[in-house]
Amino acid sequence: MADISLQYLDQPLNNVSVGYVNDDYFAEKLFPPIPVKQRSGRFWVFGKEKFHRYETIRAPKAESREIAPWALSNNPYFCNDHSLKDSISDEERAGSDDTDLEITTVQNLTDAILLDLEIRVMNLITASGSGVPNTTLAGSSQWSDYVNSDPIAAVEAQKTVIKKAIAKTPNTLAVSYPVYAVLRQHPKIIDRFKYTQVGILQADHLKSVFDVDNFWVMGAEYDTANEGQAPALDFVWGKHALLAYIPPSPQRLQPALGYTFRWLFGAPDLGGTLTKRYRVESKASDVIEVHRYDDVQIVAAQAGFAFLNAVA
Q: Is residue 296 domain-resident?
């Protein structure tokens, strides 16, 4: 008999969920997805074995020396089911001019799941026990102090620390929107463009100033109010900034700040996203569910550095 959890898969709507993109979300850029065939397991962690100097000379009839194996993490991943559903009633369908109610519903569900992922990654990076090096800025050290602070020097200093720790030059500076708003008006940054730029600096200008491949402005917002209270929006990434090395493509045996382990449950060709549609006649409604099985894990904590409360 078919698995009840898979028999209602809807391929066209699944394509909508997989293809959905919100430009304000950066969780899957900071922690690139890695597909896994098992729901749980252990993952390789970046060690210093590759930097050990070995004696490479082999005498005649002798065996070649074997290099040290990479270490396995003591913290296994486990891919929980992150899912949400919504229903479309017959009355709603009859009274709506929206001919793509299913598509709109799938996009809303996917967006909510991605927002949860964004918050999970932010909490993991900024948690006190995460292992990711950080500093909490205050007073004159905050980049909003245009007289005393020097964000360029602060970032450059940590680039050297990360480079020494993982032998990779940090290639990404990800900042919340409040930090971006301050940096683009910082006198020490504006001074770099005083003869070439007219108007307010854009993200590409800051990418050049900080000499990174990626300068990401993380603008996602969420409702901080409890259910039933008036909405109170705030930025997911608060007033934080993150310097990190993000590999161009996810690979198991290379340093990376973190990965999103995504279980290819049920249908590997669907990329770990399952979208289902089924009828609930007792409610005169069609129900749509979106499921993603994943777990976010820090792989090489020294590949990043967080500036907490970077601005006032």
A: yes
Residue 294 lies in domain: 11-61+68-308
Please check whether residue 2 lies inside any domain of the structure. no
| Percent of the chain residues past pLDDT 90, beyond the cut | 68
For residue 126, how many other CB atoms are within 10 A of its CB? Answer: 17
Please, where are the H alpha helices in the chain?
Answer: 11-19, 27-30, 90-94, 101-126, 151-166, 177-183, 187-190, 203-210
Measured between alpha carbons, how far is 259 from 217 in angstroms, rounded to an integer? 20
Amino acid at 189: I
What is the reported pLDDT for 74? Answer: 64
Name residues of the chain where pLDDT drops below 50: 1-2, 4
Give the model's pLDDT for residue 1.
37
pLDDT in tens, 107-141: 999 999 999 999 999 999 999 888 999 999 999 99
* Dist. CA 289–CA 274, nearest whole Å: 8
Q: What is the DSSP letter of 104?
A: H
Asked whether 70 and 253 are in contact (CB, 8 A), the reply is yes
How many structural domains is the chain composed of?
Answer: 1
Model-level pTM? 0.89
CATH code of residue 132: 3.90.1690.10
Q: Is residue 145 part of a domain?
A: yes
CA–CA separation, 104 vs 151, rounded Å? 41
Residue 108 domain flag: yes
pLDDT digits (tens, 9 = 90+) for 277-299: 999 999 999 999 999 999 999 99
